[in-house]
Amino acid sequence: MNIIVCIKRVPETADADVIIGKSGKDIDKSGLAFDLNEWDSYAIEEAILLKEKLGGTVTVLSLGGEDSNESLRKCLAMGADDAIRLTDPAFEGSDGGVIAKILAGAIQKIPYDLVLTGTQAEDDGYGQVGVVLAELLGIPHAALVNRLEAQDKKVTIHRELEGGLEEVFEIDLPAVLTIQTGINEPRYVSIMGIRKVAKKEIKTFGTSDLNLKAEDVGLSGSDIQLEKIFLPPVGEGAEMLEGKPEEIASKVFDILKDKGGLA
Amino acid sequence: MDFELTSEQRDIQKAAREFIQGEYDKEKILEWEQTHTFPKEIWKKAAKLGFIGIHYPEEYGGQGYGVFENILIVEEFCRKDSGVGVALSLADFSSEVVLRFGTPEQKKKYLIPVAKGEFISGGAYTEPDHGSDITTMSTTALKQGDSFVINGTKTFITNGSLADFFIVLCQTDPNAKPPYRGQCTIIVEKGAKGLDATEIMPKMGIRMTSTAELSLSEVRVPLTHLLGEENKGFYQVLEFFDESRIEIAAQALGIAQGAFDRALDYAKQREQFGKKLVDFQITQHKLADMATKIETARLLTYKAAWNYDLKRIDPKLTSMAKMFAGRTAVEVADEAIQIFGGYGYITEYEVERFYRDAKITEIYEGTKEIQKNTIASALIGKLK
Amino acid sequence: MKEIIVLAEHRRGELRDVTWEMLSKGRQLAEGMGAEIGVALLGKGVGQLAEALKPKAHRVLLIEDDRLEVYNSETYEKVLTQLITERKPFLTLIGHTAMGMDFAPGLAAHLKMPLATDCIGIDAAGETLSLTRQLYGGKVNATVSFLKKGPHMVTVRSGAFPVVEKELLPGELVKLPSALTDEGLAKRFLQYVEAAVGEVDITQADILVSIGRGIKEADNIPMVKEFADAIGGTLSCSRPVVDKKWLPKDRQVGTSGKTVKPKVYIAIGISGAFQHIAGMKGAGTVIAINKDPKAPIFSAAQYGIVADLFKIVPILKDKVKELKQK
């Protein structure tokens, strides 16, 4: 089975103090560590697991500048066979729909049975690219996939719904699946993997390679644009319990007794 | 001239960071530290991923990288946890003597299992009476037929109770003048008759690493266990120190960085007198000093490793790196405890462990005083 | 008459809350621009749901078809393509839910209709829409605008808009033909699967002690469990703990886990992503413990403790035990 995985390199903000950058349109990313988008790490792992079971190849695609090579190399080191970076100054400002268009342009040049993406990106969280991609490629899809079994020419997948419910579908291949976290346990990168990658060339495709026009990509091809960003308004918030840990503990006990019926 | 790591080196650094981050488990670590337990599971996994013996050639189970890539891993491991980091970084201790001086057969026999995480290695140089001074050995290895018969005592032997084989520095020619021209390195395997290890414990730090006294009493090993040329043992060990001291510098660097990371985190959260610690200028200055020392130690250590891989062996630079990084580790961990205040003194907050683990880097593989001798001798010319 | 269409979301015979939230927001927008609000309902034998929807909209656009018995992105896309092409609504609102995320981007692309996903705010100045979204896991908000003229499509985050009670609307029932044929589907629904039910039902607990990413290691869980035991509470968690397989799925609170309504909910080391808050906002009293004073969980809590959980939880446990004995 030949699998294409679309990935993104994102800043790690979960444990970081986030500051709004000078442009007012993005956060200040200096000093932040970057990594493969969390959802994508599950997608690449799932692709490699399928390859290990069924054979075939895994090709990774990412849209971005040279920095994105780091995440592409990580996927190669995990076990992907090929990596292609889609890059062009004209791509700047592309929205989710345009990103899907660019990815579709590249995917059409590669033979494939299955396309995997993360369900969404940690940074902008549009959760849109994979499903649009399927539409542009004219193939079926499913989002929020948290279980995947491949048979010949079709896959059986579970979609994660609200409230712990899942729905099971059978989907004909080729198809696009957007992968939810928790579907597997992404592996560590090994030194053997890194060594293998060092000799690998990461190809790049630009607008002209993908038969796209400059006006159809970037901001000019996009449907939406970001105006500004701001810190979320602080809600009413909690009454903060302060003091020595023992005093706080006594207060918690009182609250529990008062509100929880603690005997 | 470029001070940046290559993309491959960055990948290795990141892989090491993600691995040790994933394996880090504070509760387990505190327990291992208390019970003097080697982190066997993590070591096995690390070897499987190629982190152990990364600097061996492929044919001997390694990954064909240099000392530089090895110390990037050591730094990351020690940064996340000083105890686990030191234990893993020393799992292949002294195997480099086999790598540099062994025959292809010896390398295959001993290095491949080390890289696979099947063998732990040890180097037995220090003796109770001599410490860092290895110019004279009381341990003797005398030829009898096709064997060496070894007698003597070695102390403070890293991996002493764990190692599957040791590189033992012995006096083979008791009449050599000066004595160090009559020394050999000889491989002694675990289980050899007459070889006994007694764990030295409890000890101040590096409690996940075994430190033992070895007693060798009429230990017979085949003559084929000799490493390299006869009577070159002393020089081999000195050459090994040129390499291993860079690794100890990297341990110290990682320990310093790890203590700093924790102190910075704490200073950002902790409030005193209505202000965050980081809002006090005194804390800011402490952090600035700590970071500057760490960066200096890093530059020295990286340069020493870089030179080594280019085969520009420079014992002076290596000693400077080890001495300075060791001092930095002790000073930064000390200051980190100070920033934590009373909590810093408590095991759970970890910086006290970093402090205890830091101290050894000023002692083993040549005390800081020995390093100064080396530096001075290179500066002034032969002192003797 | 200009129209805003809301897609009713339902599963297993029940309308989902996001439907009412979208109707409420949609109506406010419609009133502001002199438009009407319609609600599209796709399904099989959903007459009762249509009745329930009537008072909240000017019309219920009902499309019934055996093939719409369960949700499937393929059938939904086909039916809604026809509906939107014919009715040309000024704005279409769809939930940014497991269902909406699965088909809305494809539908919009198919219709070449500008789409903004996962919006938590929609403001209109005349016909110009300005949307609010969250970036970086909720650490910052963003204002987003459409570059191209409408009609537009917006997907809406569950729980982002309150349901405001207003006077009833006429709710004309408009039955529309289905665009579906017997043509085979490339994506076929097989069944629903419930997450395995464990020995503990967190939805029934009076006191929940919930852990998140801040717990760091699986081995730290017993420490919190001891505290939970001391107060007669049940252990639950946020998503990262389940993703790491430290606790089973049936302990998860949040959008993709359980919705809980305990008397007291103690969130320990949980930052408070909206998906988590959606699952516990019905709790009587929320106490949050987090080392980051800016953690969003504090906005959803009545009581907050800024502390290192590894330090405070054992003290809480000991203190509670001591006070209980008195």
What can be said about the biggest beta sheet of chain B?
4 strands, mixed
- Residue stretches of chain B low in confidence (pLDDT < 50, at least 5 long) are none
Structural Rg of chain B: 21 Å
The CATH homology group name of chain A: HUPs
Task: Describe this structure as you would to a colleague.
The complex is a heterotrimer of chains A (263), B (384) and C (326). In chain A, 29% of the residues lie in helices and 27% in strands. Chain A has 263 residues and is of the alpha/beta class. Chain A has one domain (3-221): Rossmann fold (3-Layer(aba) Sandwich), CATH 3.40.50. In chain A, strand 4, helix 2 and strand 5 form a beta-alpha-beta unit. In chain A, helix 3 (96-107) packs across helix 4 (129-137). The longest helix of chain A has 17 residues, at 38-54. The model of chain A has no long low-confidence stretch (mean pLDDT 93). Chain B is an alpha+beta fold. Chain B has three domains: 7-116, Butyryl-Coa Dehydrogenase, subunit A, domain 1 (Orthogonal Bundle), CATH 1.10.540.10; 121-232, Beta Barrel (Butyryl-CoA Dehydrogenase, subunit A, domain 2); 235-380, Butyryl-CoA Dehydrogenase, subunit A, domain 3. Chain B is 50% helix and 15% strand. Chain B has helices at residues 7-23, 26-35, 40-48, 67-80, 82-89, 95-101, 104-116, 233-269, 281-309, 315-340, 351-360, 368-380; strands at residues 121-124, 140-144, 147-158, 165-171, 183-189, 195-199, 211-222, 226-227, 271-272, 275-276. The longest helix of chain B is centred in the middle third of the chain and has 37 residues, at 233-269. The two termini of chain B are 37 Å apart. In chain B, 55% of the residues are buried. Chain C is α/β, with parallel strands linked by helices and 326 residues long. Chain C is 27% helix and 29% strand. Chain C is built from eight helices and 17 strands. In chain C, the strands form three sheets. A nine-stranded mixed beta sheet of chain C has the order 9-8-7-10-6-1-4-5-11, sandwiched between helices. In chain C, helix 2 (47-53) links the parallel strand 4 (36-43) and strand 5 (59-64). Chain C is elongated. Chain C starts with a strand and ends with a helix. The chains are: A alpha/beta (263), B alpha+beta (384), C alpha/beta (326). Chains in contact: A-B, A-C, B-C. At the A-C interface, helix 3, helix 4, strand 7, strand 8 and strand 9 of A face helix 4, strand 7, strand 8, strand 9 and strand 12 of C.
